[in-house]
Specification:
It is built from six helices and eleven strands. The protein is an alpha/beta fold. It has a seven-stranded mixed beta sheet with strand order 5-2-1-6-7-11-10, with helices on both faces. The chain has a two-stranded antiparallel sheet with strand order 3-4. The chain is globular.
Length: 174
Amino acid sequence: MQLKGKRVGVLVEEGFEDLEFWVPVMRLREEGAEVVIIGTGRQTTFRGKHCLEARPDTTADQIRADDLDGLVVPGGWGPDKLRRFDAVLDLVRALDAQGKIIASICHGGWVLASAGIVRGRKATGSRGIRDDMRNAGATWVDAPAFRDGNLVWGRVVADIPAFCRELVAALAER
C-alpha cells in the first residue's frame, strides 16, 4: 500500500491500448492509490483496441492539476485523439508545472509532445513515435522504462511491468 492517500488520473479515449490502460489502473489500485479515469467528454464509454471498455469518472475540463498527484497516459490510438483537446493539454502542462508525476507509455508520448513538455528531456515509447519525439525536442532513449525528472516513460506492452515499477516508485517518492 505504498500509494495510500495518492490520487492518480488515467486518461482515456477511444482506441486506447487495453493492457497499457488496465494494468497500470489495477497496479495503482493494488498499491492503495485512488484512480480517477479522465475522459474528454466526447462519450461516456470508450472501447480499447482489443474491445475492453472504460468509463470515465470525470473529464479533463472538470479536474484540476491540484486534485491529482500524478497522471498516466496509456498508448494505443487514444493519444492521437486526446492531444486534440485543449483541456487535456492544459491539464498535462499544469501537472508538469507543479512537478507532478506524468507517466506515458507507447504512443502516450504524443500527448506530452503536443503539450510542449518534452523539449530537452529524455523520452521513449513505441518506435512509431520516435521521430515525433525527436522533432518535439526530446532525446530518444531505447529502454523499457525510466524516469526523467517528473516524467515516467515506458516503451510498449511487453514493458508494462518495468513501466509500472517506475510509476509506483516515482509516485511513492513524491
